[in-house]
Amino acid sequence: MKLTQQGRPTDEVIADLEAKRANDVRWADGRTFGMIYDGGPSVHEVAERAATLYLHENALNTQAFPSLGEIQSQVVSWTAGLLHGEDGASGFLTSGGTESILCGVLAARERGRTERGIEAPEMVVAESAHAAFHKAAHLFGIRLHKTPVLPDWRVDVDAMADAVNDDTVLVVGSAPQYPQGVVDPIPEIAALAARVGANCHVDACMGGFVLPFVEMLGREVPPWDFRVEGVHSISADIHKLGYAPKGVSVILHRDKKLRRYQTFVFDGWLGGFYASPNLQGTRSGLPMATAWAVMQHLGIDGYKALTQQTLDNADRMRDGIAATDGVRVLGDGRYHLIAMTGDPESERPVDAFALGDALLERGWFHDRQTPPDSLHSTVSNTNTGVIDDYLKALGECVDEVRGTRADDRSTNYATLE
């Protein structure tokens, strides 16, 4: 396609965009378990009004837009408070979980190089850790050791211990990990990192705006945040169950000294002094402002209410899956993430991907993942009011696909053409 010679009327342009959405997932009616998180009409309103205010502002230079510097500082501070960072805890806003993870890995590499003289850095992650850590290793020239998980899907600390050495700059745990939704043993992982002076990063992109409120609601949460001695950095996504629009995340460091290792500073060109706190140069002010507005609008009580509804939805979904012959939940996830697979002990086994295809035909979208073949759900407030309908459809689809196998075995968590 070529760009049209003449411009088109606004109404025509918008009508075309609306038509393009016809085949997108139906997240607004609660039938999508992931990717979009709906905090309700008032959250929509405050985010949209904030977005309009900051549609054109650029956080590349906060001297030109000091309001964005203030917004970033306040959102980071609020998040650090939720994660029990001390007064010195510092960080930046990023475009999403991948960028936050990249910044955490970069800071670990630079600290290892500066403080320990490591020229051939290595990092240790479990096979359950997010793919962004592998991307970071590729981009930053770090040798990555991938270790197995235990039958309960948590990291095998002994296997990690065998992989840690004097060139290790980073050891990673997740709270919770994405595939099965379990929280890794963060104190043990942090101790491994401390043994060689490496950084410990906790990937809480999925849990950073869930676990603090789960704990406030009285449900048990294993230790995972800055209360754990030896945790150096944490990534937490506001655009997941922080209910802000895409894309905004937080990378936090225990103190400013650790934060400086992710910052790039340069003055050796004709443009004068340049400093970049994360991987972007130009940064849109829009997601930063919407995150600020949503967090202020909800407050602690608002987040607790949304989290309680999320937990109720997820508990009902897990119970319904457990009561359905032929499928089961992987692991002992107790929060908002659910991985469903075929039950090998069933007399009439169910192929997870065939089940996913049947559910998708009825409008229910899950991510497909492997190994093992399973359907992944990130449950949120968005799914309120539809869980009974979902479980009814699940039962019908299980009966429909028993004994069949999907031809398509692919899994996609990607943007490819």
Describe the structure.
It is built from 12 helices and 13 strands. The protein is of the alpha/beta class and 417 residues long. The chain folds into 2 domains: 252 residues, 3-Layer(aba) Sandwich (Aspartate Aminotransferase, domain 2); 103 residues, Aspartate Aminotransferase, domain 1, CATH 3.90.1150.10. The strands form 3 sheets. The protein has a 7-stranded mixed β-sheet with strand order 1-7-6-5-4-2-3, with helices on both faces. Strands 10-11-13-12 form a 4-stranded antiparallel β-sheet. A two-stranded antiparallel sheet has the order 8-9. β8 and β9 form a beta hairpin. α3 runs parallel beside α10 and α10 packs across α12.
Short description:
With 417 residues, this protein is of the alpha/beta class. The chain contains 12 helices and 13 strands. The protein has a 7-stranded mixed beta sheet with strand order 1-7-6-5-4-2-3, with helices on both faces. Strands 10-11-13-12 form a 4-stranded antiparallel beta sheet. A two-stranded antiparallel ribbon has the order 8-9.
